[in-house]
Amino acid sequence: MTQIPLRHGVFLPPFHPMEENPTQCIERDLELMVWLDRLGYQEAWIGEHHSAGWEIISSPELFIAVAAERTRNIRFGTGVISLPYHGPLMVANRIIQLDHMTRGRVMFGAGPGLLASDALMLGIDPDTQRDRMAESLDVILRLFRGETVTEKTDWYTLVGARAHLLPYTKPYPEVAVVSAVTPSGGRLAGKYGLSMICVAATNPFGYDALAANWKIANDMAAERGHVMNPANLRLVGPIHIAETRAKAFENCRFGFERYLDYLNNNQPRFIPPAGKDAAEWFVENNFGVIGTPDDAIALIERLYAKQGEFGAFLHQVHNWADWEATKRSYELYARYVMPHFSRDNVPRVESFDWCADNRALLTEKRVSAAKLMFDKHEAEERARQAPVAMVRPKAGKEAS
Length: 400
Description:
With 400 residues, this protein is of the alpha/beta class. The chain has helices at 22-39, 60-70, 88-101, 116-121, 129-144, 184-192, 204-223, 245-252, 256-266, 278-284, 293-307, 323-342, 346-357, 359-385, and strands spanning 7-12, 43-46, 75-78, 81-82, 106-111, 149-152, 157-161, 175-179, 195-198, 233-237, 239-241, 289-291, 312-316. α6 links the parallel β8 and β9.
């Protein structure tokens, strides 16, 4: 069993079919944050996208500002801000403001930008995005530390730039970079000692790259004299659970194929064989889980076997099922999967088993104690009901 307490959260792109009311979709995302907070989930990471129709949150910071007001404990991360789309001073200032507004419940997730369609609308060559992310991240970390930056690149200019408000969290909020298949995320995490979010941990390509990218991060960190902390490694995977596998699959008839169609519309990757049920094929190839709490546990244990220790498992929010079944899935996970890994019920089980092992002795003690009470009660009743002897007056003057 891992020595690092496993945290639980979500990674919200989000995915919303285009026939639904978009205003209500965003509202349900906010309601989901409240539900997760109530159930005890610790983290929620919110995505940024600007095209392709489904992923309709363009500003994770705006979403987090509203969600933080509606919740009490859950922490929120930008998952992620696409750094090539923004000036680094603007990003740093927005995160610092959000850090103050949430009293330290914000985490800063950074990435190069996933959708090529976003980059092309901005006139950005996708081939430049990872380099631009690295340039921007370096500046943002310096601004977080209160440094003054003068720097000119082919896409931004800073002249004596500084943050006039420093972070609420000292020295600054947790910073995470995304990692999928390429080594770019691992290299940046290792260089700066940052957290990592492996967004494709259950995708076979991302799954195969898990250990390699973590090794890259550790090697880069070692060259700079620091050590990566596996508690700051987060793995993302899609799951939907119900009381039975059959019920889980039935729930997913609601939206699973539309989800797959959207992913393949961006980049054909998930193509089931002709005549094969798409959801069954998805699960059989270990892309994710549609099943029971035990299946979710098995997935996480498989990730432990592959990766070793890590700090958090994040559900990819996918809306395969309708709203009520979706909420039920998160509830079942909180009821049965979380305590499996926290081992909160181990002392309860040990206490129950001890009682079972000593049932005869405990029964004997209970019977003996009860008999003593009855015997005591009967003795007291006999004493109370016994006749009281008459006391005769003394002879003499007083008597007369």
